[in-house]
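Work Package 4 report. The design task specified in the project plan requires that, given a folded chain encoded as structure tokens, an amino acid be chosen for each position. We show below one input record used in the internal validation round.
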């Protein structure tokens, strides 16, 4: 450039103090040196990160980093404007081009000084100057598509090891400019797809790439937010973790919240209770139903303390609908660090939380075979730049998979939403959650079938337990408690009626020194009225005994008629929960530190009545009484009244470190300390001669009083794991954990409470695994060992004189297991997914003497029942699912086949149920990008098999002596059902 042009430009830029005039003189003498030193100044590398800082302060920092001096007029370039810079070892010339030129700031180099000027002002004064170009040679362009060939919008295309890259546009296209000649590795990533690396050589020419990504069905490259510490990809984590995406949920179309858990290996799931309470076993831990070792969360906070069986049941506290974006499930590992008293697994249901662009989904579903009509909706978007929202829910009415004889069997829904207020400095947010649930669900219980030794249900006099209900059609009864004077109206049609309201506030902020603070508070109030009829006995009807219906009409008699004895249970549960978790996280060099504190207050007031009834043995039976004018409550005689009244408060401290030892090796450590206080009132039903409570008196309808109790226990858990990245696409992990299972309020509330029956319950876990994700293949595989000591168990013993009696017992188990998830895109439209669990779960110590119960000892003598060495009941040795997804243009097909191995109905191994296969299939068609239709079927082949036997009596029954045709109790798979839906999404 000529000297006079430099001077003219400098005059324009300086405008014009005496000091600046002196600098201008320097420029005029140095102009001839431009070609000598200009390129060296521009080639200096700069690493700088600055958010919303003025141009002047950014220039000052560059001067310190490079020793290059800038000359400019602050007024001329408006140097107080705020901009952001994020450069990592970027050449100075690139940085000035990328971050100053868009703000009308040009530059010229003279010697080792850089002159800054206003580009627009230079043009106005006739100075059209070529900017100094770096040595650039090539351009990479291309298109990123999905498995169907459709464009992927928003995919990241980066040059490996640099911050240089681009994002795909609405057509899936990208451009990376100004590349020097050489070889580059292009890394393409997008959430939900397996990342891909492409090597490109540029030799003075441009390159065009067509890159197709495969879906990451195992989401091994997705970022995990559940699990403490800093978010990381599943490939880098040292836990057994499964993600269930929104697409997975749509394809699986679960019948209920429990049914969806079948997608997770390591869990044995029974959802044969319909929409009522389900059962989930974790890696062979012993239990008699419910969610004993499994914690369920919604957006990172527990819905219910872990450890309860049928009532309350956590699957009645949340429902799966369109508001759920995805689910993360951690088995074993650091589950015990995430949530108190949860050694087995944690399942976190993550909700949509709004976005910059408006979105929404609306779906109408009909159950062709069960009279289901359901509407789901969810929508979200931005109210302003910093305020985003999401709101959704569902409503449905449903005749039920099995018709109970009244309509509807299931009815209700929920409304759920959140709104996020982002801070203007982009360092955090405040998010407010709200939910209202009002839902009635049918609870399908056991029924009777003629035994033939096959483990498959057969019919008796036209009654088919698979398709028919034994719930009596005399559903309503009024009851006045003669001891308290309170009156109630109970109704089986109300089923499990849950009303729940909750509100939560989340505060999330990152400080200037890097601390990430997250505090989440939730208040939740729930009422559950549970009304259900459970059969517990059957006998041939005697011709000499005249029975009547409750309206006084004589009940007809026929040979081989049976009379069912049932318990009509009526429960009024009220609970209030207050949960608060405060977490701190910070990255300190190679350490991701985290620690936190939490409180979970669970206040419970639970009143239960059990009524004895008799009924016919047929579909939708009538109640039977022995007098034409029954004096009891509509044929129901009250047997017991029980309560659970008390408060549980858990205080928790937890923390850990995730240490990145090298690019390949990560080590993480987590510890947790939980202090639990249970303060309540324990009922008693009798008094001793001295007037003190008799805690051994049997339960009756009359509670004589209460004894106060206040018990505090402290437990700890610790877990250490390591992840070694074998390659960019594969890793191995190892983890060892010591956890615990803490008694809950139900254990302490028993009227016959004995402190000796509450023992320490340590849990030990070890696991090793392998993860792989590349191109069309994703693999997760692990082997594990788990053991629990002194688990509290109840052995139910049928007696002739005193009915069903209980023996308090303790069982210890150990389980060896292997789990796997494999996803493979066989061809472009077809993806297969295979999951499975092989486990050997056995009792290492399980025995109970009859001397603990006088009624049992009177019938069976003084003996010890021992099940040591036997398999854990109702847990299959093999549970596996193979599913396939076929996507051809607008058509989608999903088919899954689930194999469940043989199980024993009781720890005595007296009755083995056979293995079975159950299928699910669905097909969908997208008319447009927004409108789609789907049809699917559960239990496609209509498999008929028992899922459980008589959990109260099978351990005392010698099936070699049971005559074929004997009526036995059990529960079966749900019958085949068909559904269809019409959905609109935008």
């Amino acid at each position: 450039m000529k000297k006079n042009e430099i001077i003219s430009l400098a005059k324009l830029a300086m405008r014009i103090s005496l000091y600046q005039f002196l600098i201008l003189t320097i420029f005029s003498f140095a102009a001839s040196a431009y070609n000598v030193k200009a390129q060296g100044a521009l080639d200096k590398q700069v690493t700088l990160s600055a958010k919303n800082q003025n141009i002047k302060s950014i220039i000052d920092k560059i001067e310190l980093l490079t020793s290059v001096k800038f000359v400019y007029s602050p007024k001329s370039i408006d140097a107080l404007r705020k901009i952001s810079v994020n450069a990592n070892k970027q050449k100075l010339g690139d940085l000035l081009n990328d971050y100053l030129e868009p703000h009308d700031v040009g530059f010229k180099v003279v010697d080792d000084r850089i002159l800054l000027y206003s580009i627009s002002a230079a043009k106005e004064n006739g100075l059209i100057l070529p900017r100094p170009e770096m040595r650039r040679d090539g351009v990479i362009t291309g298109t990123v598509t999905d498995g169907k060939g459709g464009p992927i919008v928003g995919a990241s295309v980066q040059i490996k090891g640099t911050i240089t890259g681009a994002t795909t546009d609405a057509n899936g296209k990208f451009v990376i400019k100004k590349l020097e000649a050489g070889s580059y590795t292009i890394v393409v990533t997008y959430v939900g797809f397996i990342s891909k690396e492409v090597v490109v050589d540029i030799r003075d020419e441009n390159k065009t790439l067509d890159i197709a990504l495969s879906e990451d069905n195992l989401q091994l490259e997705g970022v995990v937010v559940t699990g403490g510490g800093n978010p990381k990809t599943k490939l880098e984590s040292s836990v057994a973790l499964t993600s269930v995406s929104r697409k997975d949920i749509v394809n699986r179309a679960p019948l209920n919240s429990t049914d969806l858990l079948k997608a997770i290996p390591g869990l044995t799931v029974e959802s044969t209770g319909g929409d009522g309470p389900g059962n989930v076993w974790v890696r062979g831990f012993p239990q008699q139903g419910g969610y004993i070792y499994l914690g369920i969360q919604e957006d990172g906070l527990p819905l219910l303390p872990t450890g309860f069986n049928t009532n309350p049941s956590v699957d009645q506290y949340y429902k799966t609908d369109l508001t759920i974006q995805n689910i993360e499930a951690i088995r074993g590992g650091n589950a015990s660090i995430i949530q108190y008293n949860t050694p087995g697994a944690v399942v976190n249901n993550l909700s949509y939380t709004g976005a910059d662009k408006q979105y929404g989904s609306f779906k109408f579903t009909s159950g062709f075979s069960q009279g289901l009509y359901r509407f789901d909706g969810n929508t979200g978007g931005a109210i302003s730049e910093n305020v985003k929202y999401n709101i959704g829910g569902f409503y449905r009415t449903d005749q039920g998979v099995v018709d109970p004889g009244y309509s509807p069997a299931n009815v209700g829904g929920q409304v759920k939403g959140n709104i996020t207020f982002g801070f203007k400095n982009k360092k955090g947010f405040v998010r407010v959650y709200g939910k209202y649930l009002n839902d009635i669900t049918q609870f399908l219980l056991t029924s009777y079938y003629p035994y033939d030794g096959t483990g498959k249900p057969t019919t008796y006099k036209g009654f088919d337990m698979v398709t028919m209900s034994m719930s009596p059609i005399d559903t309503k009864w009024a009851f006045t408690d003669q001891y308290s004077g309170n009156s109630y109206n109970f109704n089986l049609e109300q089923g499990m009626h849950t009303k729940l309201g909750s509100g939560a506030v989340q505060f999330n902020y990152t400080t200037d020194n890097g601390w990430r603070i997250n505090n989440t508070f939730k208040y939740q109030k729930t009422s559950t009225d549970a009304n259900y009829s459970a059969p517990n006995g059957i006998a041939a009807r005697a011709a000499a005994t005249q029975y009547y219906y409750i309206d006084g009409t004589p009940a007809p008699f026929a040979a081989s008629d049976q009379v069912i004895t049932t318990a009509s249970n009526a429960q009024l549960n009220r609970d209030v929960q207050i949960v608060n978790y405060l977490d701190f996280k910070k990255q300190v060099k190679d350490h991701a530190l985290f620690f936190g504190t939490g409180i979970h207050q669970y206040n419970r007031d639970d009143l239960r009545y059990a009524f004895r009834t008799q009924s016919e043995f047929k579909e939708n039976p009538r109640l039977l009484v022995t007098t034409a004018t029954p004096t009891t409550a509509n044929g129901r005689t009250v047997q017991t009244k029980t309560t659970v009244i008390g408060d549980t408060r858990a205080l928790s401290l937890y923390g850990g470190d995730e240490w990145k030892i090298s690019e390949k090796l990560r080590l993480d450590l987590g510890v947790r300390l939980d202090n639990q206080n249970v303060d309540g009132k324990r009922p008693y039903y009798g008094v001793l001669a001295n007037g003190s409570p008799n805690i051994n008196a049997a339960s009756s309808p009359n509670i004589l009083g209460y004894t106060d109790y206040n018990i505090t226990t402290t437990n700890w858990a610790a877990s250490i794991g390591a992840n070694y990245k074998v390659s960019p696409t594969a890793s191995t992990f190892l983890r060892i954990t010591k956890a615990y299972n803490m008694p809950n309020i139900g254990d302490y509330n028993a009227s016959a409470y004995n402190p000796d029956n509450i023992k320490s319950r340590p849990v030990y876990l070890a696991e090793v695994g392998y993860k792989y994700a590349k191109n069309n293949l994703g693999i997760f595989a692990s082997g594990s060992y788990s053991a629990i000591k002194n688990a509290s168990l109840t052995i139910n013993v049928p007696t002739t004189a005193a009915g069903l009696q209980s023996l308090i017992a303790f069982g210890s188990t150990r389980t060896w297991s292997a789990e796997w998830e494999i996803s493979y895109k066989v061809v472009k439209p077809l993806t297969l997914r295979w999951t499975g669990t092989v486990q050997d779960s056995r009792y290492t110590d399980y025995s109970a003497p009859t001397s603990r119960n006088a009624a049992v000892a009177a019938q069976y003598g003084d003996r010890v029942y021992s099940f040591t060495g036997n398999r854990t009941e109702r847990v299959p040795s093999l549970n596996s699912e193979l599913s396939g997804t076929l996507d051809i243009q607008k058509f989608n097909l999903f088919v899954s086949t689930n194999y469940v191995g043989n199980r024993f109905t009781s720890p005595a191994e007296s009755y083995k149920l056979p293995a079975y296969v159950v299928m699910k299939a669905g097909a969908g068609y997208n008319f447009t990008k927004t409108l789609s239709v789907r049809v699917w079927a559960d239990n496609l082949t209509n498999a008929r098999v028992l899922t459980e036997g008589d959990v109260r009596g099978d351990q005392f029954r010698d099936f070699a002596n049971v005559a074929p045709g004997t009526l036995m109790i059990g529960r079966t798979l749900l019958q085949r059902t068909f559904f269809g839906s019409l959905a609109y999404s935008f």
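The chain has a mean pLDDT of 88. Validation will be extended to a larger panel in the next phase.
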